[in-house]
C-alpha cells in the first residue's frame, strides 16, 4: 500500500525534507522599505513624517527587522539613511513601485536570499506580527500578500525571487501596474480573517497619502485608541 506521509516510508521523508527546505527559505529573506514615492498629495517626503514620534520609514524597518537578514531603504537617491539599514537605489525612478520591486528582487537574488519582504513606508501601522503572518503562510508561492477591504496589498508582501523574471519583463514592456503583475503569478492571498490580530489596530493597513491621513493616524495614536 502506498504511504502518503504516514509511517516511515519515502513520502514521510520527502515531506520532512520539504518542511526543512521551507524553514531554510523563511530564514533567508531580504527586507525592503520603499520610500521613493512622489508624495504629491503630502507635499513633502512621506518617509520623514513621524507617527508616534517615529519616522514612518523607521517604523517600517522595525516591522521587517525580526524577519529579514538585511534591510534596505529603496529610493531614487541615497538620502534616506536609516539606522541599521543600507540604501538600494531605484535605477528607474518615476516608474512607480515596480522598478523598486525589480531592484529589490535583483538584490535578493544576488545575496542568495529566497525572497524579499517588501513594505511601503506609508503603511505606518503595519507591525512585526503582521509581517510574521506573511512569512508563516509562505509555502513557495511567488507572492504572499494580505487583502484589506477587498483590495490586495502587494506593497506589504513577501515576494519570492521566482517573481523576478516576470517583474523584469513587465518593467521592460512598460506594464507598470504591480497588481497586473501579481495577477500573472502564483499568489497566496491572505484574507482579513487569516492575518488580522484581535489585539492589533483595527486598520493596520491604513495608507498615509495626505496631511489629513497623517493627522488622523497621529491623533488616534496619541489618544491610545485603536485606529478605525
What does this structure look like?
Strands 1, 4, 5, 6, 7, 8, 9 and 10 form an eight-stranded mixed beta sheet that branches. The chain is globular. 36% of the residues lie in helices and 19% in strands. It has 228 residues and is of the alpha/beta class. Strand 2 and strand 3 form a beta hairpin. It has a single domain, classed as Spore Coat Polysaccharide Biosynthesis Protein SpsA, Chain A. The chain is built from eight helices and ten strands.
Q: Largest sheet, if any?
A: 8 strands, mixed
Q: Fraction of residues in helices?
A: 25-40%
Q: Assign the CATH topology.
A: Spore Coat Polysaccharide Biosynthesis Protein SpsA, Chain A
The top-level CATH class is Alpha Beta
Domain count: the total is 1
Mean pLDDT: 85
Count of helical segments? 8
Q: Output the structural class.
A: alpha/beta
Number of strands: 10
Kindly report the name of the CATH homologous superfamily.
Spore Coat Polysaccharide Biosynthesis Protein SpsA, Chain A
Q: Could you name the ranges where pLDDT drops below 50 across 5 or more consecutive residues?
A: 1-14
What is the first-to-last residue Cα distance?
56 Å
Amino acid at each position: 500500500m502506498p504511504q502518503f506521509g504516514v509511517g516511515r516510508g519515502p513520502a514521510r521523508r520527502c515531506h520532512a525534507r520539504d518542511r526543512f527546505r521551507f524553514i531554510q527559505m523563511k530564514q533567508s529573506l531580504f527586507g525592503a522599505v520603499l520610500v521613493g514615492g512622489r508624495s504629491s498629495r503630502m507635499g513633502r517626503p512621506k518617509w520623514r513624517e513621524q507617527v508616534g514620534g517615529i519616522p514612518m520609514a523607521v517604523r517600517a524597518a522595525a516591522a521587517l527587522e525580526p524577519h529579514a537578514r538585511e534591510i534596505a531603504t529603496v529610493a531614487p537617491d541615497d538620502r534616506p539613511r536609516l539606522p541599521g539599514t543600507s540604501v538600494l537605489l531605484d535605477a528607474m525612478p518615476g516608474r512607480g513601485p515596480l522598478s523598486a520591486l525589480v531592484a529589490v528582487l535583483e538584490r535578493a537574488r544576488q545575496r542568495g536570499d529566497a525572497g524579499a519582504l517588501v513594505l511601503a513606508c506609508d503603511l505606518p501601522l503595519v507591525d512585526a506580527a503582521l509581517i510574521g503572518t506573511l512569512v508563516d503562510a509562505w509555502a513557495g508561492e511567488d507572492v504572499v500578500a494580505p487583502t484589506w477591504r477587498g483590495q490586495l496589498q502587494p506593497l506589504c508582501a513577501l515576494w519570492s525571487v521566482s517573481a523576478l523574471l516576470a517583474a523584469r519583463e513587465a518593467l521592460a514592456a512598460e506594464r507598470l501596474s504591480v497588481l497586473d503583475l501579481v495577477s500573472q503569478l502564483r499568489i497566496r492571498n491572505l484574507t482579513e480573517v487569516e492575518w488580522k490580530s484581535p489585539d492589533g489596530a483595527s486598520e493596520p493597513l491604513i495608507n498615509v497619502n495626505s496631511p489629513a491621513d497623517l493627522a488622523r493616524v497621529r491623533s488616534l495614536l496619541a489618544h491610545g485608541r485603536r485606529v478605525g
